[in-house]
Design brief:
By secondary structure, this protein is of the alpha+beta class. 22% of the residues lie in helices and 30% in strands.
Length: 92
Amino acid sequence: MGRKKKEKPEDKKKMGRPPTKPVVKRPAYYVTVKVSNSMNYQNTNVLISKDTIPEIKQLIARSPQKVDFLGFWTGKSYQSVPEIDEFIKSRK
């Protein structure tokens, strides 16, 4: 029945949620969707990525919320895609 050693501060387990790494964007087509919450009257922007142009067109056509097409992410900036820009203009 010996005495317990006192724990040193560096030996203590850390409590709480661990930090998260920032998301690394992959090369894909990106869209922001403005989602409105009627319960607390807040608007939130959600970033969505899709791999192909037909997936993006389907998302834009079926979404009841406001959708903003950002473009194709190249790793440094967004490139505009004329095919999708024309699709968005034809829907308005």
